Sequence to fold (226 residues):
Amino acid sequence: MRERFFLILVICFLGAFAVRAGGAEAAIYKKGFSYKKLPPAVKRQMKGKSYPVSGAKISLSGLRIVTVRYYNFKGKKRTGTLIVNKKIAKKTAAIFYELYKIRYRIERMEPVDKYDADDEKSMEANNTSAFNYRTIAGSRKLSMHGRGLAIDLNPRINPCLRNGKTEPSNGKAYRIRNRKKCRGKYKKYMILKNSKVVRIFKKYGFSWGGDWKSLKDYQHFEYKNS
Fold:
């Protein structure tokens, strides 16, 4: 009887920290929030899209797939995935757990490969995403997304304002960052200065593009303490 009880305790203890899923061991942060090495199927999906066939400065083994729960714009519970640098995998799970607790709404969350790694298409769909091996717009420098150290949150309603342009183009209604004046349908989910969303990301060492002076990238959070 004692042996059986001890065995149950061991199984519960191990299960609280890791589960076997898709051939890869997943570390559990909280129920519904975990991270693990990229499964073979995900690697195949990425190659030639969000990950180059050759010449990448980061290996696929240096990335993790993070699975989280979130509330969509209709208040329904959904499960999404983000691909990030292994250095921030646990932090990402923790951040989205806190966003889940405050019921911050997210329209959708899919790897950019679902959009053929086309950043504009992903943003137009208001898709929350992270890793995409690409350069900074207008330069040859690898972006923080290309290192897996940046996350774009609800990009359509939190657009990037650069040189008078709105990215994505269908986010123009959200150029006005005052909820009383903005006419966008989902203005209550805009990320504003000193909001709970910004404070949560900063708590885990991220900076916010909405604080930048040269341009405003309201969707963008990046981790530089690496």
Summary: Residues 6 and 12 are 10 Å apart (CA to CA).
